[in-house]
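Readers outside the structure-tokenisation community will struggle with the description of the input data as it stands. For illustration, here is how one protein appears when written out as sequence plus structure tokens:
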Amino acid sequence: QVQLVESGGGLVQTGGSLRLSCAASGSIFSINAMGWYRQAPGNQRELVATISRGGRTNYADSVKGRFTISRDNAKNTVYLQMSSLKPEDTSVYYCSMGVTTTNLRYADYWGEGTLVTVSS
């Protein structure tokens, strides 16, 4: 069993910054890709950023140059540094990880989400 726990969400003004964290725990053998997704009310969940085990990153066009994804493999943790936040960034942010468990089974795991609200 693997659990992902996000933290760092909250209320911030336009132009402000927040740092999200997501830590994985449980029967982890290895973690492949990590990523952040978001879902605003009435919208589908969308990709924000991903990072491979080797550190290759990918960003949605809407966040390029403002958000930075990083990971600490020793801590099984992924981060999302968000800067120059806009009201349209308001969403529930979810982390996801591709995990191989100690019984050598692979699956994608998701956190429960953390709310980011950007006020205008």
